[in-house]
Amino acid sequence: MAITEPRESDPFAAAESLRAATSEAGIVLPSLGVDPASPALGLVELGRVRAEVAFHLAEALRRGVRE
User: Cα–Cα distance between 32 and 5 in angstroms, integer?
Assistant: First the structure.
């Protein structure tokens, strides 16, 4: 998996991109969204997930790094 520089710093686009990618891996981050408290920073809030979801996300990242 190639790592590329972000093409934009729009937090809404970044959140949707992450939502699509995690969905493809069968992972749902229910609290994923843009942090409204700090709009100038463009932060994406990942939120809380159950431990099993965190393990699934970690495994998906490891698989991607190996590819």
Answer: 21
Give the three-state DSSP class for 20. Answer: helix
Cα(first)–Cα(last) distance of the chain, in Å? 5
Q: Which of 44, 40, 36, 35 is nearest to 15 (CA)?
A: 44
Report, in this order, helix, strand and coil percent for the chain, each rounded to 5: 45, 5, 50
Beta bridge partners of 34: 44
Summarize pLDDT for 25-36 with one digit per residue, the tens.
Answer: 999 999 999 999
- pLDDT at residue 45 in the model: 96
How many CB atoms are located within 10 Å of the residue 27 CB? 17
Q: In whole angstroms, give the CA distance from residue 46 to residue 64.
A: 19
